[in-house]
């Protein structure tokens, strides 16, 4: 036992020495390159092209595996300190600043599938096992905690009654909005969307759209196409028309409309995370209007004036319109050298932009672009990241975004 304890202390000492030397070095001082060189000596496995910013903390790094192209941003904490614990991050996992992933007990495995993103200041903890599937998006300040205090005996202190550790499983391609909480023993089915601020206390079937405290499924993504067909008889908001009140629409239909309003907040939280990761000044999602001839901004950070002024960009014109028409990735180092349709881009003083078409069901549904107020040449790696994000947006939320095109109705 003493020999095992001594060995553990030596491993921890090596970990502390290496992380102390290079852990706080900024990128400008070759910190990223130094960590890429030395951290394989302390981690159980570290794949290729791993990006680790300064201030990332490891506890028991020898029990932590990082796949290829993993991104760990400032002040992320990975804690596998307890006995028989493992933290496994698949290829292209990105953990944003301040997130805390902790086994918090013995015999715990926390696994994140490839392509999954965890937003700033989120917490994922054991001691129950946590398994999150591929291509999931978890927005900022979310909590996924696989334990629950037992409090059945009022005569005994809660802290002395132990905890449950049933575990949590989240399927592939799920989207958890800002501040979602997932409690112990829950399984969330593949392709589900959880509204901002929801508390998930029970299992949800695949492709659920769930909101509330406690969270309940208010719709299924598999049934959305039927609703879209119903909505197509009305003019979209993007055209600026209002539809008169329809008395035949019953209370259930109105209730379903209200349930989907938090989904816009989900997209805003996702854009906030993307803007931080890529260190850009503007991020925007534009969607085609119903007639397919124009683009309208549906969500943005930094270009809110385009929504306020109702800018409509004809397909084939301007930066975004040409991307939708071609359709292909476009990088512009100096915006003054090209035709720009939206006056907001000039007014904001944008200098460099990168944009990609949004696809769903093998057709273009819009454009996703980012911009910088300062001269910048976007790299091939950044372009690949933007294309990857756009693909995930197109696949995961295109049916939900269609619901936003529902017109407003007066009461009655």
Automatic annotation (TrEMBL):
<keyword id="KW-0808">Transferase</keyword>
<protein>
    <submittedName>
        <fullName>GAF domain-containing protein</fullName>
    </submittedName>
</protein>
<keyword id="KW-0677">Repeat</keyword>
<feature type="domain" description="GAF">
    <location>
        <begin position="262"/>
        <end position="407"/>
    </location>
</feature>
<dbReference type="GO" id="GO:0043886">
    <property type="term" value="F:structural constituent of carboxysome shell"/>
</dbReference>
<dbReference type="InterPro" id="IPR029016">
    <property type="entry name" value="GAF-like_dom_sf"/>
</dbReference>
<dbReference type="GO" id="GO:0016740">
    <property type="term" value="F:transferase activity"/>
</dbReference>
<dbReference type="InterPro" id="IPR018357">
    <property type="entry name" value="Hexapep_transf_CS"/>
</dbReference>
<dbReference type="Pfam" id="PF01590">
    <property type="entry name" value="GAF"/>
</dbReference>
<dbReference type="InterPro" id="IPR001451">
    <property type="entry name" value="Hexapep"/>
</dbReference>
<dbReference type="InterPro" id="IPR003018">
    <property type="entry name" value="GAF"/>
</dbReference>
<dbReference type="GO" id="GO:0031470">
    <property type="term" value="C:carboxysome"/>
</dbReference>
<dbReference type="InterPro" id="IPR051159">
    <property type="entry name" value="Hexapeptide_acetyltransf"/>
</dbReference>
<dbReference type="InterPro" id="IPR011004">
    <property type="entry name" value="Trimer_LpxA-like_sf"/>
</dbReference>
<dbReference type="Pfam" id="PF00132">
    <property type="entry name" value="Hexapep"/>
</dbReference>
């Amino acid at each position: 036992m003493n020999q095992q304890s001594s060995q553990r202390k030596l491993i921890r000492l090596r970990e502390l020495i290496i992380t102390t030397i290079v852990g706080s070095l900024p990128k400008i001082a070759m910190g990223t390159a130094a960590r890429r060189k030395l951290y394989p000596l302390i981690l159980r496995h570290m794949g290729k092209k791993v990006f680790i910013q300064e201030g990332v903390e490891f506890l028991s790094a020898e029990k932590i595996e990082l796949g290829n192209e993993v991104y760990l941003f400032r002040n992320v904490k990975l804690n596998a300190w307890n006995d028989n614990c493992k933290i496994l991050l698949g290829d292209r996992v990105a953990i944003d600043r301040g997130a805390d992933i902790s086994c918090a007990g013995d015999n715990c495995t926390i696994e994140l599938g490839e392509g999954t993103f965890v937003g700033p200041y989120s917490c994922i903890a054991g001691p129950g096992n946590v398994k999150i599937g591929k291509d999931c998006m978890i927005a900022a300040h979310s909590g996924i905690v696989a334990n629950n205090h037992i409090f059945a005996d009022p005569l005994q202190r809660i802290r002395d009654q132990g905890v449950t550790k049933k575990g949590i499983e989240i399927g592939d391609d799920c989207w958890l909005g800002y501040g979602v909480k997932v409690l112990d023993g829950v399984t969330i089915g593949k392709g589900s969307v959880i509204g901002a601020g929801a508390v998930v206390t029970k299992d949800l079937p695949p492709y659920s759209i769930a909101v509330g405290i406690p969270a309940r499924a208010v719709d299924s993504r598999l049934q959305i196409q039927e609703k879209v067909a119903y909505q197509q008889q009305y003019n979209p908001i993007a055209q600026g028309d209002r539809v008169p009140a329809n008395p035949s629409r019953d209370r259930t239909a109105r209730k379903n409309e209200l349930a989907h309003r938090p989904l816009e907040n989900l997209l805003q939280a996702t854009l906030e995370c993307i803007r931080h990761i890529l260190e850009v000044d503007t991020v925007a999602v534009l969607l085609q209007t119903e007639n397919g001839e124009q683009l309208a901004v549906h969500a943005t950070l930094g270009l809110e004036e385009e929504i306020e002024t109702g800018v409509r960009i004809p397909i084939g014109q301007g930066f975004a319109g040409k991307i939708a028409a071609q359709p292909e990735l476009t990088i512009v180092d100096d915006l003054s050298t090209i035709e720009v349709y939206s006056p907001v881009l000039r007014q904001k003083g944008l200098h460099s932009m990168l944009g990609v078409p949004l696809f769903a069901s093998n057709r273009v549904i819009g454009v996703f672009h980012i911009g910088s107020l300062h001269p910048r040449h976007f790299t091939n790696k950044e372009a690949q990241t933007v294309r990857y994000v756009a693909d995930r947006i197109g696949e995961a939320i295109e049916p939900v975004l269609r619901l936003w095109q529902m017109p407003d109705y007066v009461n009655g």
